[in-house]
């Protein structure tokens, strides 16, 4: 038996076991607290349909954008091993400039302020 077949069998067996345990454990002692829709531990105080602030979504999208920027820049130290490292630097500088200008625009427009 080769290594790939062994790994596939082990991961499949582990996945099946964990799935069965996940379905079996919650059914041991169901009660009113576990069956209620609010399982977070506190009683609901208001409606669950209150609207979120758009600023929350704006900050969340900006966080994701800059998080993806870091993910794109992580392989940059290996970029100097390419045939044209100056082209790699130019593309990196263009991406950073574009993102910096976008952040400056959002900051100037007041999009990052929580309080109005």
From TrEMBL:
It catalyses: a ubiquinone + NADH + 5 H(+)(in) = a ubiquinol + NAD(+) + 4 H(+)(out). Its EC number is 7.1.1.2. Coiled coil: none annotated. It is found in: Mitochondrion membrane. GO terms for cellular component: mitochondrial membrane; NADH dehydrogenase complex. One of its GO terms (molecular function) is NADH dehydrogenase (ubiquinone) activity. It is a multi-pass membrane protein. Keywords: Electron transport, Membrane, Mitochondrion, NAD, Respiratory chain, Translocase, Transmembrane, Transmembrane helix, Transport, Ubiquinone. This is NADH-ubiquinone oxidoreductase chain 3.
């Amino acid at each position: 038996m080769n290594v790939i077949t062994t790994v596939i069998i082990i991961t499949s067996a582990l996945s099946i076991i964990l799935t069965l345990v996940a379905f079996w454990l919650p059914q041991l002692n169901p009660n009113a607290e576990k069956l209620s829709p609010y399982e977070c531990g506190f009683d609901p105080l208001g409606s669950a349909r209150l609207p979120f602030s758009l600023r929350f979504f704006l900050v969340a999208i900006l966080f994701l954008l800059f998080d993806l920027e870091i993910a794109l820049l992580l392989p940059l130290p290996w970029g100097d091993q390419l045939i044209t490292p100056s082209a790699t630097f130019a593309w990196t500088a263009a991406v950073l400039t574009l993102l910096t200008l976008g952040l400056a625009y959002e900051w100037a427009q007041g999009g990052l302020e929580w309080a109005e």
